[in-house]
Amino acid sequence: MAVYGYVRVSTMEQANQGQSLETQRAKVALQARMMDASIDRVFSDRGVSGSRPLEERPAGKALLEAVRAGDSVIATKLDRMFRSAGDALSTLQAFKANGVKLYLLDLGGDDCTSNGISGLVFTIMSAVAQFERERTAERIADVKASQKAKGRFLGGQRAPFGYRVGADGGLIENLDEQETAYRMQQLRSQGVSLRGIAALLEKETGQAIHPQSVKRILNSSYIYSKTSSRPIE
């Protein structure tokens, strides 16, 4: 009979820092000692979103393939292993059917597969976790829609070509880049190829530009205009 731990962090930044993973490992090891056992192996998903089902995560899949009848699995929190009620309940049923015990520390550390109260709490909390994830996604979508309607920049490595980000998060025209983008649109409307546009702009400005960059700018959701102070989407 083996005792396995499962730990997860959702971003590579957290994984590289290691603090959260190490904290989870320490808690899992402590729970095993309280059970007069030791951890045979800890399965770690580094930088893996909890929205992915357990069987679709690298370490999660390996864990499910490793467990056998009589084994135990320990995790610090329900949301480290599951964020979908369906995923949580189907895994719990599979563990029960195969004689695998599941201990989740945030649910009291009891065996969820054999303790009736723990199983009930597990079911309720699985549904709550999924509801919270869906509500969070809705709130983020609402905020992004509101920010977009106000002309705010929604993030990324850099502002779109032709703009810079103002102090309030709004997009402000970069006039030089606006002229370049507007010129690209003019040339493209006249049937000039991407390579031809790049060559003409290099001749006119003295600055080299790659045809793929021309394509990216032309395919942007932002339409550049000499008269408009905001992008037309």
From TrEMBL:
Q: Is Cytoplasm among this UniProt entry's keywords? A: no
- InterPro entries cross-referenced by the UniProt entry: DNA_bind_recomb_sf, Recombinase_CS, Resolv_N, Resolvase-like_N_sf, SSR_resolvase
Q: Name one GO molecular function term.
A: DNA binding
Would you tell me the protein name for this molecule?
Serine recombinase PinR
Q: Which residues form the Resolvase/invertase-type recombinase catalytic domain?
A: 2-151
The gene behind this protein is pinR
Q: SUPFAM superfamilies given for it?
A: Resolvase-like
Instruction: Give the annotated active site.
Output: 10
Q: Which GO terms describe its biological process?
A: DNA integration
User: Organism, per UniProt?
Assistant: Thalassobaculum fulvum
Record key words, sorted: DNA integration, DNA recombination, DNA-binding
